[in-house]
Write the structure tokens for this entry.
Amino acid sequence: MRRRFIADIWSPQTGHPVTAALIGDQAAHLARVLRAQPGQVFDLVANGFLHRAEITAVSESEVRFTLHEELEADAALPIHLLLAIFKFDHFEWAIEKATELGVARITPILARRTEKHLALAAPKRAERWRRIALESSKQSRRTDIPELLDPTPLAAALQSEIAALRILLSETEQQTTLTSAVGPLSQVSDARPGAPNALALAIGPEGGWAAEEMALFTTHAWQPVTLGPRILRAETAAIAAIAIAAANLGGQE
């Protein structure tokens, strides 16, 4: 199996590119660690398209490729994960695993019960979180990188959400399961892989959502669901919810 990389630059900039390049850390890794040489072939993702790519020039600052035939690739899951910010090591693990599972978009949420020092530090961590998503995309052989937005207050995130189905994991909900709530999504045309926002999943912080936040979710037509009787850590709940949703979306064509 060929190694896969995600291009930093490509040409032309729209449509199917014909040349591409890695720069920065990716180029240095290829040049120094893998000792890449012109003529070697790798899989390369450029502008969302997966190609067989041949190296044409190598330096520690840039590795250039000519792109050959397009290869078959899986699309991202049409899931937007709204993840309330919690302890950074656990939060970053959740970003890594959500990326591996294939979500299309992740929004870090500044919730009422997000610890103050985490909320203040979160904007400075956003680029680190994007790097984690990039590395996880390469490791899991994705053909894209999930869009990772800047930390956003809950009210603003709910105001702008356009998903066809909006699901809120709630410790107070006892009847409606995630599986039953996602079921109707199979009838939604935008639920096909590749659709960016068919399903939105909201996962709360430690301590859960505050009462005024639950009211906001109701105002914006979010469906509360349960994952069962156990109380899960936020990162565990996020991964379990994505996996359940992905299983229900797996039959879409």
